[in-house]
Design goal:
By secondary structure, the chain is an all-alpha fold. The protein has helices at residues 2-8, 10-36, 55-61, 64-95, 102-114, 117-127, 134-141, 156-181, 186-194, 198-226, 230-235, 247-256, 261-293, and strands at residues 39-40, 50-51. It is globular, with a radius of gyration of 24 Å.
Length: 294
């Protein structure tokens, strides 16, 4: 009897240790961060953490630098995600067609994704260098005024958006290309019989059928863009004058430069809730779109 029960549940018994390990690895840092967010702690060996309740959260919500970082985070995320989705769809449509050298183009196109973010950050610092950088040389050759790029508070976020778009648009295009490969051919054949133009077929057939795929691609990228740290830290470290400091970066500064571990943890808890909320909203939207199309 016991042997029979063991055989029936063999797949669960074998996977249970891995599930427990993954759950512990995921849950422990979250629970520990939430706990620390209610304490004042400077990582001192002689001063133990002191319980302060919601004081860290209240102090954070009164902190102008926190709200500035939140604004920079949303600005960077909205601009990067919008451009990456639009360009990703356009590139996926182009690469889904047959042409000579298509495989070579696809390989070159994917190179930014495999590059190390910090190394790419240093390369882009050289490109954006105001006096000898390639970016200003190109502007001068076109008869345009040179820019300060990463050195200007007004230009630093758009400059970082360009780097992020360059690096991660290929991922959006790859997902969209996978979605394009699964589209049925019947609606296109009917549209050809009716004499529909290429633009009409894109708007009326391709885009509606691709919506769930686009939502998935946008959701995956949204989570990643919100958490962007490496490129910003490697190029500007939040400057100039905190203009490119995002929530992720401010949490790092609070924790490991100012040693305000409690306040940094409360920021990360708020940030975690924000990312979770946006992710659940995207999942809900995808289910609604799938329900409407079925």
């Amino acid at each position: 009897m016991q042997y029979s029960w063991f055989n029936r549940n063999l797949k669960w018994i074998y996977t249970l240790p891995a599930v427990i390990f993954v759950m512990l690895m995921m849950l422990f840092p979250i629970i520990y961060t939430v706990r620390i967010s209610f304490y004042e702690w400077s990582m001192s060996a002689t001063t133990p953490p002191a319980w302060v309740g919601l004081s860290n959260y209240i102090a954070l919500l009164k902190d102008e630098r926190f709200w500035h970082a939140a604004g920079s985070t949303f600005y960077f995320t909205f601009a990067a995600l919008t451009l990456e989705v639009i360009l990703g769809i356009a590139i996926a449509l182009l690469l889904s067609r047959e042409f000579r050298g298509k495989n070579l183009v696809k390989t070159v196109f994917l190179l930014p994704m495999v590059a190390t973010p910090v190394a790419m950050g240093l390369v882009w610092m050289l490109i954006y260098e105001p006096t000898i950088g390639v970016a200003n040389m190109m502007l001068k050759s076109l008869g345009l005024q040179p820019l300060l790029w990463l050195a200007s508070p007004n230009q630093v976020i758009p400059s970082l958006v360009i780097v992020d778009v360059w690096e991660w648009t290929p991922m959006i295009a790859l997902i969209i290309m996978a979605g394009l490969a699964t589209l049925p051919s019947d609606p296109y054949e009917a549209a050809d019989v009716d004499g529909a133009s290429t633009w009409r077929k894109f708007v009326s057939i391709t885009l509606p059928l691709l919506r769930p795929t686009i939502i998935v691609a946008a959701m995956l990228r949204l989570i990643d863009v919100l958490k962007t740290f490496d490129i910003i830290y490697a190029t500007t470290q939040g400057g100039p004058n905190f203009a490119s400091e995002t929530l992720n970066l401010y949490g790092y500064v609070l924790g490991f430069q100012y040693f305000k571990l409690g306040m940094a943890s409360s920021l990360l808890v708020i940030f975690f809730a924000l990312v979770m909320g946006l992710t659940l909203f995207m999942i809900w939207m995808r289910k609604r779109l799938e329900g409407a199309s079925s």
